[in-house]
Write a structure and sequence with these properties.
The protein has helices at residues 2-23, 25-28, 53-64, 83-92, 122-132, 138-162, 171-187, 201-209, 213-221, 226-235, 243-267, 278-284, 310-341, 343-356, 364-367, 371-383, 416-420, 423-426, 464-481, and strands spanning 67-72, 75-80, 169-170, 290-295, 298-305, 392-394, 399-401, 404-406, 411-414, 482-485, 496-497, 503-504, 508-513. With 517 residues, it is of the alpha+beta class. Bound molecules: protoporphyrin IX containing FE. One of its GO terms (molecular function) is oxidoreductase activity, acting on paired donors, with incorporation or reduction of molecular oxygen.
């Protein structure tokens, strides 16, 4: 008995010392930063939806400077807000920082069967990115435009109905209906619009809405428990409720249904037609191309075919659904708020839209003529880089960064908010909404690493051009018909909330029909 007690005591002291050793990691290296609490580090400060984590990082940057360290349980993070270092991590030293700073509860990216593009790393990522890239090419987007525009027209119909008699509407809600409709149709085989009756909506909303603190914190604090918790999550979803599990199941059903349909067609000799959506594109991505890669993570040289497994098809459709839903709806919401509170900008944008898009249907080529619209979207994303936390990497091979030694396993997080409002980069009016600052088309004179709303480097957002297309099309349709006006329900300034992405709590708006159109 005494021996067991002694062993347990020694083990506890050992474990606690290990946590303390990690907690003091940055201090021991002479790098300042928030200490938080022993064992927890700064974890508790970064899971508060009322104080979005990017805002907290920005506050710490003001306190500790442009490079500081923090811990979250057993994870060690360096926070940077110097564009040159961002460029170094995300581009120049990509080979040393090719992984993301995943929470262990998200699974092991080298072992998960359904690993997706956002989580994958090394040659698994390269293969998925190579296969997925054509899906977002100009050619492919040109084909998708008709579906996106159909959802725009459908949304306008709902807007007209629900604003009758001058009633204000909550725009974030409308935009989420829109982006889910688009992504459901282009990624998940949904055949017609499901707007305002889509059963998937509460689940995708919950993926970003609820912080699910305990689950995610456990990943930092007791990472070795994560594989067990994941097993429980997938095998008994009613015990550890995770909306992502429901979405993955629905996605898997859609993919399996399509595979069965295609096999049945093949049996009776029906020739495959044009791909209907991403599921078809991924299933068709069978090619004889074979990549031979060697990677230190996968000790031997491996032969990798370009064909995706069914699980991988499910993983990619899932990530496009989740990645494409929230981000674009938020960006549209922030743009609408800024347009309504800057009537001169809105007027100028309406003039451009009226000039360039006169026919009822807007063509793909017309979209590229909307230069001022592009400035408005970029400027919105500069002030509200809603997916700021995605700008992060994990060090996969020890290296140095700005003279600091970085060990394998250390995470690097960019403080996007500070960079995007740095007067040294943007001038003394950095806090102001001024789309004109993008007009000279000289983004390239900005120092590299200074505008990172979609990230930079090989892992830059793959959906960026789709997001631009969706936003341009929808804003065009709305602004031709309405002028966005604030109303008494509009929160000015917006209250920002959220843990994974940063969102306005509400965006109430009046849609005033345009008399001139
Ligand atoms: C305004 C809209 C969007 C914003 C602001 C945004 C932002 C971002 C950011 C910051 C990253 C990390 C980039 C990096 O690490 O360098 C990212 C990655 C990613 N985004 Fe987006 N995104 C948007 C729309 C979309 C859409 C529409 C999709 C898909 C349909 C999408 C899918 C992805 C994927 C799959 C990745 C991971 C790419 C990789 O690691 O190779 N995003 N996004």
């Amino acid at each position: 008995m005494i021996t067991i007690s002694l062993a347990l005591f020694t083990l506890s002291v050992g474990v606690f010392s290990y946590y303390l050793w990690t907690w003091t990691y940055w201090k021991r290296r002479g790098i300042s930063g928030p200490m938080g609490y022993p064992v927890f580090g700064s974890t508790l400060d970064l899971f508060d939806s009322e104080n979005p984590p990017p805002a907290q990082l920005e506050k710490w940057t003001k306190q500790y400077g442009k490079v500081y360290g923090m811990t979250q349980g057993l994870s060690k993070t360096l926070v940077i807000s110097n564009p040159a270092l961002v460029q170094e991590v995300m581009v120049n030293q990509y080979d040393n920082f090719y992984g993301r700073n995943l929470n262990p509860i998200q699974g092991n990216p080298n072992q998960e069967k359904r690993v997706h593009l956002f989580a994958a790393q090394g040659h698994r990522w390269k293969r998925l990115r190579t296969i997925s890239s054509p899906t977002f090419s100009n050619n492919s987007l040109r084909k998708l435009k008709t579906t996106v525009e159909d959802s725009c027209v459908e949304l306008l119909r709902h807007m007209e109905e629900q604003t009758s008699g001058g009633k204000p509407i909550e725009l974030l809600n409308f935009y989420q209906e829109f982006t889910l409709d688009v992504i459901g149709r282009i990624a998940l085989g949904q055949t017609d619009s499901q707007m305002f009756k889509n059963p998937m909506l509460p689940y995708v909303r919950a993926v970003f809405g609820e912080p699910r603190k305990a689950l995610f914190m456990s990943g930092f604090l007791v990472p070795w428990l994560s594989p067990i918790l994941r097993k429980i999550m997938f095998s008994f979803p009613s015990i550890l409720k995770n909306p992502a599990v429901h979405i993955i199941r629905q996605t898997a059903e859609a993919v399996e249904k399509r595979i069965a349909q295609r096999m049945a067609d093949e049996k009776v000799g029906i020739e495959p037609g044009e791909p209907q959506d991403f599921i078809d594109l991924f299933l068709d991505a069978k090619s004889d191309d074979v990549d031979i890669q060697s990677n230190e993570e996968f000790s031997k040289t491996e032969k990798v075919t370009k064909q995706l497994t069914t699980d991988e098809v499910v993983g990619q459709c899932f990530v496009f659904l989740v990645g494409g839903f929230d981000t674009t709806a938020l960006s549209l919401s922030f743009s609408s708020y800024l347009l309504a509170t800057h009537p001169d900008v809105q007027k100028r944008l309406q003039e451009e839209v009226d000039r360039e898009c006169q026919d009822p249907e807007i063509t793909f080529d017309q979209l590229s003529k909307l230069k001022y619209m592009e400035c408005v979207i970029k400027e919105t994303l500069r002030l509200y880089p809603l997916a700021a936390l995605a700008n992060a990497r994990r060090c996969m091979r020890a290296t140095t960064l700005g003279g600091l030694e970085i060990e394998k396993g250390v995470d690097i997080v960019c403080d996007t908010w500070t960079i995007h409002k740095d007067p040294k980069i943007w001038g003394t009016d950095a806090e102001d909404f001024k789309p004109e600052r993008w007009e000279s088309g000289d983004d390239h004179i900005l120092s590299k690493g200074s505008f990172i709303s979609f990230g930079i480097g090989p892992r830059q957002c793959i959906g960026m051009r789709l997001a631009y297309m969706e936003e341009k099309l929808l804003l065009c349709h709305i602004l031709r018909k309405y002028t966005l006006k604030t109303c008494k329900e509009t929160q000015i300034p917006m209250k920002l909330v959220g843990v994974r992405t940063t969102q306005p709590e509400t965006v109430w708006m009046s849609l005033e029909p345009r008399e001139d159109n």
